[in-house]
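Morning F.,

Quick status update on the modeling queue. The single chain you submitted on Monday has been processed. Sequence for confirmation:
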Amino acid sequence: MVTIGLLGCGNVGQIIAENQNGFSIVAMFDKNPDHVKSVASHTGAHGYTDFDLFIREPFDMVVEAASGSAVREYAAEVLRNEKDIVILSVGALADDAFCKELKDIARRHNKKIHIPSGAIMGLDNLTIGRISPITRLELITTKSPRSLNVQVQKRTLIFEGKANDCIKQFPKNVNVSVALALASGSPIDVKLYADPAVKRNIHEIIVEGAFGEAYLKITNQPSPDNPATSYLAALSILSLLKDIDDPLVIGR
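Structure tokens below.
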């Protein structure tokens, strides 16, 4: 069974801890001691507020469920300590130089960086863009004004451009756009709408290429204990971990 070190003990970390299936959490890290204590009650694993002590624990893989800043601060050290990493806050990889650095470190240490599907579906299929040209890749995301920290009275386009520019302006809201760009190896056009009439995040993905055309719409149910978090994002990590040691690989 794969052993896990959980980096981040907030809402997503709590969901992972409560649903261990095919993996076992043996250690966890969060700068907030109350968060560590809460998640530890579900696992019996060692909890740390000191990263250096956490990373020395004998587990196979770190699962990041914290933030983009946590990825930037700790991901390289995770790989240097001979552990694979699952990155949920994929927006941190919008920085091309940082992404290349992590990949180089992973290669040197023969480790893997896993990116779960997060708040969307079909991410694995978009990897065809690396071998067959994608001529159009567009993401249309609609969120409530509150989640985007803006004030509008009607559906309003608040950003239109490329994924890497979008994540700079809205770093906590558009991990999806960066994940799509990484998966496809293609530039992605992003339209971000604030709409006071919506209560759930909506992602529409349009893809065209030599393979044909695809349109996918995902309406995210919020996490039961944190409306700011997509429940699908947490489930995507559980799915990845459940199957990561399975000899039968589906989709990739």
